[in-house]
Design goal:
With 241 residues, the chain is an alpha/beta fold. The chain is built from nine helices and six strands. The chain binds zinc ion.
Length: 241
């Protein structure tokens, strides 16, 4: 956890520079300027974006062949996304900012801790007015080691599908250039997105079962490209009529 925080701190200047470049690109691409301005000036009720790095603590999620753990990548990408959204004037809340699971006292087994953690994430989202959940994860498909790319999933609360489509388009133009994907509705078996009452998005940033993609996912620059595409997709969808 300490190493992770130090790395984040050391990389902050580079991140800021890259974030400004990313922001310039987003502004150049169009409509976000108006959205950011109106949320800064309070001329419309602003949404709260809940940035949720999936897993954490004892629940590491998927693990790559080289030992890279999903929860750490989720956190790094989510922190970059949170920085970009805030630079553009978006109100955000993060479910975690460190390598922790957010289970309550009394949870003992790993299963109990996972269940408690998810319930607490749902309670956090449902306790906010006008929230949108953006959950960051990594995929894995060990039987198909060549499968790769970022894909967006959405729940049944609109405008989740429009936000997902907009994010997917930006990701396809940024990191999926030879491998465009289509957003998909999340199965109702996923506890978090089924139980929140707000639009919910899951971004599966890449496949830890793919060696080359795992290497990319660990690069700060690639993480920033993912975060910038997700942020730009979010603002474009929110600005659409
Ligand atoms: Zn996950």
């Amino acid at each position: 956890m300490v190493v992770l925080m130090r790395k984040t701190h050391l990389g902050f200047s580079a991140l800021l520079l890259a974030a400004v470049a990313g922001m310039a690109l987003i502004l150049w691409q169009g409509r976000v300027g108006i959205a950011a301005f109106s949320s800064l000036t309070g001329t419309e009720p602003s949404r709260v974006v809940v940035v949720d790095p999936g897993h954490g603590g004892e629940d590491g999620g998927a693990v790559a062949a080289d030992g890279t753990v999903e929860s750490g990548l989720n956190l790094q990408i989510a922190l970059r996304l949170n920085t970009l959204l805030r630079l553009l004037g978006q109100v955000t809340v993060m479910t975690r900012t460190e390598d922790v699971s957010i289970y309550s006292d009394g949870a003992e087994t790993l299963h109990q801790k996972k269940v408690s953690d998810l319930k607490n994430r749902v309670a956090l989202v449902n306790g906010l007015e006008n929230a949108v959940l953006v959950s960051i994860h990594q995929n894995t498909l060990p039987g198909s080691p060549r499968t790769h790319g970022a894909q967006v999933f959405y729940n049944g609360v609109e405008p989740a599908s429009a936000i997902a489509l907009s994010m997917q388009e930006r990701l396809n133009n940024s990191v999926n250039t030879e491998n465009g994907k289509t957003p998909k509705r999340i199965s109702d078996s996923i506890y978090l997105t089924k139980n929140v009452m707000t639009p919910a998005i899951i971004v599966e940033c890449g496949f830890l079962s793919n060696e080359g993609e795992t290497a990319h996912l660990k690069e700060p620059g690639y993480q920033l490209r993912l975060a910038a595409a997700v942020a730009a997709g979010y603002f474009s969808a929110e600005e659409a009529p």
